[in-house]
């Protein structure tokens, strides 16, 4: 078990959440996956290990992880939500053919928030940015 998974489980225990085997597996899958999976993808990946687990169990646990601030739900309006266990400030680039999502970081984009605050007087809480293109796998 990775240190990241252990830390997340400790965080849940501290907040009074009971750690079930299914909850542990869902969280570990999310933390170890860089694929931004859908709930159905998580379910299909874990079903052999937990044949009695339902899709509803996955959704309920994802909702709880979101409420705990451990997971972000990514909605793009045209397909199922995807889930990201990287809750640090970062951006996404999305393949228009296969739907793969990759993280990228570009710190100077934070300057956009500063400029927006100065020009509008708003107190900015964050921003979301996605780039779209064709991934290397689809181009090959």
TrEMBL record:
<dbReference type="Pfam" id="PF01475">
    <property type="entry name" value="FUR"/>
</dbReference>
<dbReference type="InterPro" id="IPR043135">
    <property type="entry name" value="Fur_C"/>
</dbReference>
<keyword id="KW-0238">DNA-binding</keyword>
<dbReference type="InterPro" id="IPR036388">
    <property type="entry name" value="WH-like_DNA-bd_sf"/>
</dbReference>
<keyword id="KW-0862">Zinc</keyword>
<keyword id="KW-0963">Cytoplasm</keyword>
<protein>
    <submittedName>
        <fullName>Transcriptional repressor</fullName>
    </submittedName>
</protein>
<dbReference type="GO" id="GO:0003700">
    <property type="term" value="F:DNA-binding transcription factor activity"/>
</dbReference>
<comment type="function">
    <text>Manganese-dependent repressor that controls a regulon of oxidative stress resistance and iron-storage proteins. May act as a hydrogen peroxide and organic hydroperoxide sensor.</text>
</comment>
<keyword id="KW-0805">Transcription regulation</keyword>
<feature type="binding site">
    <location>
        <position position="135"/>
    </location>
    <ligand>
        <name>Zn(2+)</name>
    </ligand>
</feature>
<keyword id="KW-0479">Metal-binding</keyword>
<keyword id="KW-0408">Iron</keyword>
<dbReference type="InterPro" id="IPR002481">
    <property type="entry name" value="FUR"/>
</dbReference>
<dbReference type="GO" id="GO:0000976">
    <property type="term" value="F:transcription cis-regulatory region binding"/>
</dbReference>
<feature type="binding site">
    <location>
        <position position="138"/>
    </location>
    <ligand>
        <name>Zn(2+)</name>
    </ligand>
</feature>
<dbReference type="GO" id="GO:0005737">
    <property type="term" value="C:cytoplasm"/>
</dbReference>
<keyword id="KW-0678">Repressor</keyword>
<dbReference type="InterPro" id="IPR036390">
    <property type="entry name" value="WH_DNA-bd_sf"/>
</dbReference>
<feature type="binding site">
    <location>
        <position position="127"/>
    </location>
    <ligand>
        <name>Fe cation</name>
    </ligand>
</feature>
<dbReference type="GO" id="GO:1900376">
    <property type="term" value="P:regulation of secondary metabolite biosynthetic process"/>
</dbReference>
<feature type="binding site">
    <location>
        <position position="98"/>
    </location>
    <ligand>
        <name>Zn(2+)</name>
    </ligand>
</feature>
<dbReference type="GO" id="GO:0045892">
    <property type="term" value="P:negative regulation of DNA-templated transcription"/>
</dbReference>
<keyword id="KW-0464">Manganese</keyword>
<comment type="similarity">
    <text>Belongs to the Fur family.</text>
</comment>
<keyword id="KW-0804">Transcription</keyword>
<dbReference type="GO" id="GO:0008270">
    <property type="term" value="F:zinc ion binding"/>
</dbReference>
<feature type="binding site">
    <location>
        <position position="95"/>
    </location>
    <ligand>
        <name>Zn(2+)</name>
    </ligand>
</feature>
């Amino acid at each position: 078990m990775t240190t990241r998974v252990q830390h997340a489980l400790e965080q849940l225990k501290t907040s009074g959440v009971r750690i079930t085997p299914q909850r542990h597996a869902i969280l570990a899958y999310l933390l170890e996956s860089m694929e931004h999976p859908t709930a159905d993808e998580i379910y299909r990946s874990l079903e052999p290990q937990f044949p009695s687990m339902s899709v509803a169990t996955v959704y309920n646990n994802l909702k709880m992880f979101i409420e705990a601030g451990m997971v972000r739900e990514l909605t793009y309006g045209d397909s199922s939500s995807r889930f990201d266990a990287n809750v640090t400030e970062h951006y996404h680039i999305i393949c228009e053919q296969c739907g793969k999502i990759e993280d990228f970081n570009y710190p100077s984009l934070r300057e956009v928030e500063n400029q927006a605050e100065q020009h509008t007087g708003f107190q900015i809480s964050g921003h979301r940015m996605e780039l779209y293109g064709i991934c290397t796998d689809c181009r090959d």
